[in-house]
Amino acid sequence: MNRDLKISAKNLSFFYGGFEALHDISLDFYSNQVTALIGPSGCGKSTFLRCLNRMNDLIPGIRVKGEILIDEENIYAPSVDVVHLRSRIGMVFQKPNPFPKTIFENVAYGLKVNGVKNKNLIAEQVEKSLRRSALWDEVQERMHESALGLSGGQQQRLCIARALAVKPDVLLMDEPCSALDPIATQKIEELIHELKKTYTIIIVTHNMQQAARVSDVTAFFYLGKLIEVGDTDTLFTLPSLKTTEDYITGRFG
Amino acid sequence: MAIHFQRELAKIKKSLLTLGALVEERVRMATDSIEKRDAALAGQVIHSDHDIDEMEVEIEEECLKVLALHQPVAVDLRFLVAVIKINNELESIGDQAVNIAERVEIIARRDTVDFVFDYTEMTEKSQNMLKQSLDAFVNLDLDLAFKVLLLDDEVDKIKNIAYDRIKEAMADHPESLGHLINLLLVSRHLERLADHATNIAEEVIYLIEGEIVRHSKMW
Hints:
The complex is a heterodimer. Chain A is about 35% helix and about 25% strand. Chain A has 10 helices and 10 strands. The longest helix of chain A has 14 residues, at about 120-130. Chain A is globular, with a radius of gyration of 18 Å. Chain A starts with a strand and ends in a 5-residue tail after the last helix. Chain B has helices spanning about 1-35, 40-45, 50-70, 75-110, 120-140, 140-170, 175-210. Chain B has 7 helices and no strands. Chain B is mainly alpha-helical. Chain B has one domain: Methane Monooxygenase Hydroxylase, Chain G, domain 1 (Up-down Bundle).
């Protein structure tokens, strides 16, 4: 398997005011791999995910220590254009959040914001993104209807298409299936398998079986610390640490 | 859910140990019957084997149910996989006890005995292996599990001695071939029994270490 280093967090600590939400995390992510971040609520996994595209910048009173290198470039360097960064690192959230616009406009939005004006180019990229997110066949006849008329699973795949349209190389997913039924979940999981051929994917999930099913590497967070990281098949059959074992076997608390 | 699940695992463990005790008892009866040339005792072993078969099926069904309902991982997954396999091994050991008993029934029919092979050491060692492999499972005792693997070589050696001695006896007493073949088969069944105990020990090693030691001659 291709093991090109894509993202490298080095001694990352993160503070909400005086509260240290992440403590000295060093973690590498490789191209064309799916990494799952697991851990109980409040363990810092979502905070960590949001550090990767500087989503936390929007929260007042935060402070970041350490660095995150993407393609060897520190994304917290002052010279970094955050808007450009976020187009390289797409994000999909827990609840599908399409814009109250047409299906077409949802996917085209990022391109337009980025200044793409050529209509053919936009149409082409919209179709490509919808195909990539395995939604095209279901929506090609209704591109100009409201996105809000889609089912939850379709909306989530639309959000993935929207993220893909601006050609990112990393895809962050924060519990992308927690609001979906098992069938829609399965579709997203199949999609993740497909997408990892092109993208580096990092997924936060509370669903341990999902982490086991979709990821190549699993990182376990607890109380703001990275406890254990390893190949998913090893972590779920023979974790090295007792804390990890206690968590994944439900012996916590 | 976790507590409920742990209770299910505890129940499965208890059932497996009950089966283990039952199988140990049958092996003891079968080996006693060799020593005493006791056809009646051998008959008891043969006719009670279905108890073991039934328990084996029950335990397997219980494990499959827990796998489907709880989708366990890590130590819990290794535990269930080990139980499913140990369960099979115990059933096979029960079958070997029956095989021994069947040989003894035939051997005991003969009035005159020209030749005997003393199986005491081999039966003691095989029984010990079974006991220790189950103890290793109960106490998650890695050292003891490895000890069982070593004992298996000793049992194999005795089997080879039995083979040579019985072969000689066949040359000396060609009129007793049938009897001697049955006597030889006892050593074969005891050796297989010890192999199944070895398999149990290997499952215990997997359960503790997560490593499959079967087929690797690391001890």
